[in-house]
Amino acid sequence: MTASKSMREYELKFAGRAGELMAMKKAADAAAGGRASWRTAETQTIYYDTPERRLFAKGVTLRVRQSGEKCVQTVKADHSSSAAALDRAEWEQVLSGCEPDLNVLPQSARRALGTILPDELAPVVVVDMKRQKTVLVQINALGPDLEAEVAIDKGTVHAAGRSAPISECELELIGGEPSVFFQLAMEVHGNSLARLSRISKAARGFALFDETAPEAVKAPKFLLRRERSVSETFREVFGVCIANIVDNEPIAMDGKDPEGVHQIRVSIRRMRSLLAILNNRIDPERTGWLREELKWLHSSMGPARDWDVFISETLMVVDGYGIDRKQIDRLRKLAENRRAEAYRSVRETINSSRYARLTLKLTAFTEIAGWLPWPVGDNHPLVKPLRTHARSMLSRPFGKLMKGSENLADMEMEQRHEVRIRLKKLRYAVDFLHNLYPGAATTKFLKNLHRLQDQFGYLNDVAQITHMIDDLFTSGSKQVQNDPGLHAAAGLVIGWHAQHLHALEPQFLNYWDAFIQTPPFWPAKGKVGKPND
Amino acid sequence: MRSVLVANPKGGCGKTTIATNLAAAFAQSGLVTAIADVDRQRSSLTWLERRSDALPTIRGLDWTQGVGKVKKRIDRLVIDAPAAITPKDFQSLLKMADVIILPILPSAFDQVAAVTFLGKIETLKPIRKNRKPVAVVANRIRPRARAYHALIGFLDEFNQAPVTSLRETVAYTDAAETGKSIFDRRDQRSRAFQADWGPLIAYVD
Fold this sequence. Notes:
The structure holds two protein chains of two kinds. By secondary structure, chain A is α+β, with helices and mostly antiparallel strands. Helices cover 52% and strands 18% of the residues of chain A.
């Protein structure tokens, strides 16, 4: 294996309850062969900012950490240059006092901080923390195999008179093979309920200060590059998706904003579709478990999403069509109950050790490129540039879609559903790869594909409505089951959408015709070079 | 580099005071700062001439004969535009700027002129296309004066709110006499007025 050119940092952070952290500490002891030597340090860290919190808004932090008599000032700046790459700059000085001192900073740090008026900086967040840490060294016959730091952090974040507890375990690779590091992480984690966390202590403090609740995060668009290998692309896509899932956990658990569950499902789908697109290039033994687990996670959040859509779209559009509102409202109440139950199971899922384990395993899989065989030769298709695969990744699902689906008008519902699924597979491939082929042909293809898929999506929604309404009645009481008002409302909802679908048929067929006449934007087989420049 | 253009076709509304104090705020933050003076009256440049070498350095660029070039190593550039300027020159300054500051005094004449100007520049290409932000700054105000409330009400009618309101004080004129800004002075009075600038810094920086 070749050494990677850029220094990658491997760090994992788990948030859990005291008992879970105790268990992880014990597991670290066991990994050290009985008992690790722990050192305890108590620190107080103060984060400073201006009254407008300009530093926080810029993604810059200025902090002074006191440990015993020693005070260290640190400036950190995050410049997100792209979806996945994060350029992090950090400056650190030992101070003579314990107040921030900007005069000791180098020009680059001053530039990162920007303009600071005299007397403007004030403490915003205070973190009191007790850290117990140890360094685990696993030695094999050939020398040190792994050196990793394990830290157990307990403490409190204070801001604006409010406070929140810290209870975290951090693991950091100091030296050795990442794959061994992740094995250790898995060992230390055990089957704990402690979950991966991406929120810094400072960010928690600032959220506490402003009393902001976490918000749903939309997964960023991928900027694929033709020259990067399939494997690197895989890592980037998976990395972004895992981060997105973790970031949306609190919103999904809260359940008020449908975006949380929705974004998590979008990220799972992106990963699943990438696995599907690369199906014949990856050893199924390496990814079988992952497909299983992702499917489980996706479907365990399915009902929550279905009820969100049912309430906010299906019932919403029917409202105001001269239908008895009162009965529709009663139907909505029933649906809201089902939705609440669905969200309870979302919380159970996220709070399960299976979920905690999955996100950790998924991170390990991504970081150590678990899709690659070992040793991997230079000729392995996955280490070849993306451009060498893109054409076939697109033309395969396209060919499958076109085969035998010319006459959509004559198709029964069942057959249309099969076309819908094949179209969906093409769409995943297109969404991933289209920006490798920028140009008018691509834009047109995308437009025609998306509007067609929206129509197919509605077809599926309408098919779902009957099932969901059935569910409302079967899960309801005897009274509900025999309630003529509710049945009338249900009939109206089903009827409205069936009629609407019927009314859309001519447009649907037009979209279909337009789509099958749109030439693909990727080059034909055997043709070399970029099509659009 | 970030460039800030201070502009208003009305004279005496405090363009130079804002330009020099803003530049001093940048400079005392350790940022490499320059003032480009486009005004024939050279007020910013003569202020720099009075400025002591012991204070944080601000470079002066003489653009009174025409818009010049900016060295790459500069972190912050403040452009002090004259009241009278040809549309062509103004366009080229706008192109350079990342953000525009429009000072307005709490006086009926000034506010009408300023809003007319605001309406005009909003139709200009750089602002229309790139949506360059324009920060309206209420200058030399007395918080309890009727004129100030009239100004806020007037701006509100045009869906504008000042980014900040700078209170009137002799601290500015006292400082300017010796080439200083209120950020270079440590007396109680100057310090009390420094906080007025926070929202503007948050907006332009």
